[in-house]
Automatic annotation (TrEMBL):
<dbReference type="InterPro" id="IPR006169">
    <property type="entry name" value="GTP1_OBG_dom"/>
</dbReference>
<dbReference type="GO" id="GO:0003924">
    <property type="term" value="F:GTPase activity"/>
</dbReference>
<protein>
    <submittedName>
        <fullName>GTP-binding protein Obg/CgtA</fullName>
    </submittedName>
</protein>
<dbReference type="InterPro" id="IPR027417">
    <property type="entry name" value="P-loop_NTPase"/>
</dbReference>
<dbReference type="GO" id="GO:0005525">
    <property type="term" value="F:GTP binding"/>
</dbReference>
<dbReference type="GO" id="GO:0042254">
    <property type="term" value="P:ribosome biogenesis"/>
</dbReference>
<keyword id="KW-0342">GTP-binding</keyword>
<keyword id="KW-0547">Nucleotide-binding</keyword>
<dbReference type="GO" id="GO:0005739">
    <property type="term" value="C:mitochondrion"/>
</dbReference>
<dbReference type="InterPro" id="IPR036726">
    <property type="entry name" value="GTP1_OBG_dom_sf"/>
</dbReference>
<dbReference type="InterPro" id="IPR006073">
    <property type="entry name" value="GTP-bd"/>
</dbReference>
<dbReference type="Pfam" id="PF01926">
    <property type="entry name" value="MMR_HSR1"/>
</dbReference>
<dbReference type="InterPro" id="IPR031167">
    <property type="entry name" value="G_OBG"/>
</dbReference>
<feature type="domain" description="OBG-type G">
    <location>
        <begin position="301"/>
        <end position="549"/>
    </location>
</feature>
<dbReference type="InterPro" id="IPR045086">
    <property type="entry name" value="OBG_GTPase"/>
</dbReference>
<feature type="domain" description="Obg">
    <location>
        <begin position="73"/>
        <end position="300"/>
    </location>
</feature>
<dbReference type="Pfam" id="PF01018">
    <property type="entry name" value="GTP1_OBG"/>
</dbReference>
Length: 550
């Protein structure tokens, strides 16, 4: 018997189903030892403190709470946001004035550059609701330049903090500098072609600032130099390639720049010539880059609970962690995902489960996401399905929660897998469409740029690989079944049938419930539990750790 099977059949079935209890005396003795050293309470819900009382008694009211005993935190997992980098301050037109220097030279300072917009995924953020309220986030504008060659102050930067697991997709971008560059390129070309009034340009009030009090007739007589070429902040090189598509799936130590502030205008000393030491013009600061982005949070939990409504997912989450998710005896009690943390090591003695992360770090906890119940055709957005199916897409391990007292458990597992699998197909199609959208530039046949191009769509020549979202197909994730409400009478036969079905899936006698080729079926197991009495749940942490290591 493998250690996992031993652990499973050993610790819980004696309470629930004595008939299935087959483990050896030796392993029972070892478990007794373990139970004495780590009482149930400290083992699977180590955030609770009163270790002297029995687990069941202490938590009976917590696990079977009244309908109004829950805590609800504001939550949003999607939002559309416009971020705007700060505009540059204007250059200054001023002249030196001192005693005995009546008409001093130009000494206007340059405008300050605008503030940058940064994004950072941090631990501790769990929702996008604060950003959803804001809609427009604008970095500070640079201050205008001042006399005595004083440059303007830089605009204030903005840092957008998002939860880990946020995907940022660009919807629209307004780049004023790109427009200016285009304009500049055109004027350069025209300037080269046309006969030369070199170095002269007319007054453009969107680009030039003139000395205060300049009257229109004077303005007409003034000779404006050629507009300087548009400038970008050197920080713009650090911006992600447009169109932006970021998958912020790790805690970020440093923020990522997404929109660099615009440059400030030039002060009047820039326009001094040997013939004109007192230019009466300066340039205006540039407008900031504006990007509309869609933020989508896909919770990154280690374990995702998938189940029909009223199956007991929230009760299970309460039994495993210190969560206060709402529990009620009706469908759709849970309307938004809840994430609970199961503490494996509370640093008060030896941890029950010792597991290391991929980077060798010792795991102190793991997270469990409880999402609203799925119903048939959830993938077609029935019930609350589609909005929340994406939260299980990124869970490392899936736990299918089935209610043993509510009909055939095997049918429930098959139905849940069907929905998850349909969702996976849909996501695959979406991802392909997105990839195509980003690689192929459609050009109608009658608008061919050059006659030697054939009719095929033009591939984007960009050598940069596209940033794909790294995601494992849902069907290839390790999974197990939590058979809840095992305390209710006449559930044994249902559980037995479920166990037999999973054995058949493992042996290959039955297809994987998702009907997919490369689905994970190495060792799907059933865990009978009574979440309401916290019986049987103590094996789940070890099981999850084993599956996480796969
Ligand atoms: N007898 C028994 N009742 C349970 C058990 N687990 C949950 N229940 C009850 O089943 C009902 C539904 O539990 P919830 O945890 O709210 O179920 P859910 O799956 O989160 O439901 P939705 O959020 O609506 O999808 C509640 O009345 C629980 O008290 C169990 O192990 N045994
Ligand atoms: Mg619930």
């Amino acid at each position: 018997m493998s250690p996992r099977t031993c652990c499973l059949s050993g610790t819980l079935t004696p309470f629930l189903y004595p008939a299935f209890y087959q483990s050896s005396l030796a392993s029972a003795a070892r478990r007794c030892c373990l139970a004495r050293r780590f009482p149930l309470q400290s083992r699977c819900n180590s955030t609770t403190t009163e270790s002297s009382k029995s687990y069941v008694n202490t938590d009976s009211s917590r696990l079977d709470p009244t309908a109004d005993d829950y805590s609800l935190t504001p939550f949003a997992d999607r939002c559309i946001l416009t971020v705007e980098a700060g505009g540059g301050g204007h250059g200054c037109v001023s002249f030196l004035r001192e005693k005995y220097i009546e008409e001093g030279p130009a000494n206007g300072g340059d405008g300050g550059s605008g503030g940058n917009v940064y994004i950072q995924a941090v631990r501790g953020e769990t929702s996008l609701h604060k950003l959803a309220r804001r809609r427009l986030i604008k970095a500070g504008r640079g201050r205008n330049g001042q006399g005595k060659v004083k440059g303007g102050e830089r605009g204030a930067d903005i840092l957008i903090t998002v939860p880990i697991g946020t995907i940022v997709r660009e919807i629209q971008r307004v780049d004023p500098i790109a427009a200016l560059e285009e304009e500049h390129r055109k004027t350069e070309m025209n300037g080269e072609e046309g006969p030369g009034e070199e170095g002269k340009a007319s007054y453009n009030k969107t680009r030039w600032l003139v000395y205060p009090g300049t009257i229109p007739s004077e303005l007409n007589r003034m000779t404006f130099p050629k507009l300087p070429p548009p400038r970008r902040s050197h920080l713009a090189a650090l911006e992600p390639q447009a169109p932006m598509w970021l998958d912020l799936d790790k805690h970020m130590e440093t923020p990522l720049l997404i929109a660099a502030g615009a440059m400030g205008g030039l002060g009047n000393p820039h326009f001094m010539t040997p013939y004109n030491s007192r230019p009466k013009m300066a340039t205006r600061g540039d407008e900031g880059l504006k990007i509309s982005v869609q933020l989508e949070l896909k919770i990154l939990a280690d374990l995702g609970l998938v189940g029909l409504p009223n199956a007991g997912k929230s009760t299970l989450l309460r039994a495993l962690s210190n969560s206060r998710a709402r529990v009620g005896n009706w469908a759709f009690t849970t309307l938004q995902p809840n994430v609970g943390t199961v503490v494996l090591d509370n640093h008060k003695g030896r941890p029950l489960v010792t597991s290391r992360r991929r980077n060798g770090e010792l795991r102190e906890n793991f997270t469990v996401a409880d999402v609203p119940g799925l119903i048939e055709d959830a993938h077609l957005d029935k019930g609350l399905g589609l909005g929340f199916l994406r939260h299980i897409e990124r869970a490392a391990v899936l736990a299918f929660v089935v209610d043993l007292s509510a009909g055939d458990a095997v049918d429930a597992v098959k139905l849940l897998w069907r929905e998850v699998s349909e969702y996976e197909t849909m996501r695959g199609k979406e991802l392909n469409a997105e990839t195509e959208r980003r690689t192929v530039t459609y050009q109608p046949a009658n608008m061919k740029a050059s006659p030697d191009l054939d009719d095929s769509p033009i591939l984007d020549p960009s050598p940069e690989p596209l940033p794909f979202l790294s995601s494992t197909p849902i069907s290839s994730k390790p999974w197990f079944v939590v058979a809840t409400k095992a305390d209710l009478p006449d559930t044994q036969a249902n559980y037995k049938a479920l166990e037999q079905y999973l054995d058949a899936v493992k042996a290959g006698a039955q297809p994987h419930p998702s009907k997919r080729k490369h689905a994970w079926k190495r060792n799907p197991q059933a865990v009978p539990v009574s979440a309401i009495k916290a019986e049987g749940v103590e094996v789940i942490p070890q099981l999850v750790m084993d599956l996480l290591e796969e």
